[in-house]
Fold this sequence. Notes:
By secondary structure, the chain is of the alpha+beta class.
Amino acid sequence: MNSFFHDINSANLHFIGVFKYESKHIKNDLYSESSYFFNNQDYFYQKYYPNWLHSFFNQKTLPEYGINNNHLQLKKEHPLLRQKQELILRAGEEDKTIHYALSSIEVFLFRANLGIFVIKTTLSNEHHNSEDIALFAKKFRNTTINSNYTNSDYSVSLIEKNIVSQFHSDSKSWRQYNPQLKTAFFLDIANQLKSDKMNQLLFDIGTFTAPLYDDLFIPDSEYYERLIVDNTIALFQNWKVLSLYDSLTRIAVNLDKKDTFRLWENEYILIYVYVLFARYYLYHINNQLTNIELNLNESQLIRNNFHHFMNDFEHSKISYKYLPNEIFEKLKNVLGIKEEIVVVEQKINRINQRVQERYEKRVNAILVLLTILTVLSVAYDAGQMTLEWINAKSQILKIPSFIFLIIISLILVILFFRKKLK
């Protein structure tokens, strides 16, 4: 265990997941509309581009259900926010009780009936050490129910009872989208660390490997160096960020006393939520394209929805300031947003081509049928005229009319299709 990790001022961990919501099932019992953005609009518009703010905060409103804001929060008087919580975990051969507080639960309602929830937790002072932070994060984010959870109020039960059930008729519907919750660590430490120590700390926390099994999770040196170079953000000496696929970790040195607005916990976390929504939305579109047999109208609808999404999401910049843009770009790269967009675009183009080809085949089949009917009609008229002429000239050459018509029709049809094949 690394001794430099013991002097921690605060440990705030946010757990983030996705769920599908049903507009008609939304309840107003536990949640109220957040006033965070609307109470600080002047600040936000001075710092962020209006098109991004509109894209984030006005994606979905449901006035018919009493909701005019897509950012909701658990009501402050809810008992969950007023009492100390416990999570009992298996630590070695013994159970260990982790004490924490729920500072808030926030929900964001986006397009395509996708919702993002953020569970904000604060560990008690007694757990300001690497072992407890690692235990808590690994277990809280795990949505697989197993015997390690010995208490009744673990994260799955908390989420289904207090979040998903308020927005969907099936409280278990969210599980298929969340094999594990995304985690954002906001740690404030007391002492400045050397660069290599800070990097190691970021890696150990961000990969959930600190510090119980150090010997089993020693990273390859090349992989480790590449990860640190590509995935960290460090503008000042008193904080550094590591962004990974499953986690966002910020470690600061004595920042709590100066950052009274908690910018990372309250503001920059919104950028993380926004990029995660994009990732989940692309998964949703990809799933639609994979699992259903599309017709032309459905294909066009999915393509149009995707284009609307791209118009809202594709921002070269989201802020007049450097840091929000850097966070936005870093998270897009880490979560593979650009690559996923290319895959979805290719799949949409292939499906559109296949649907169009199928549509053209049907149209051609109808045209062929109409052509055959036309040819048969012409053949019938020609046959009738020919029979009348033959019968008028000679009584000897009488031929049954239906046989003659069949012969004439077959000759014309064969000639027509030979011409089509050339």
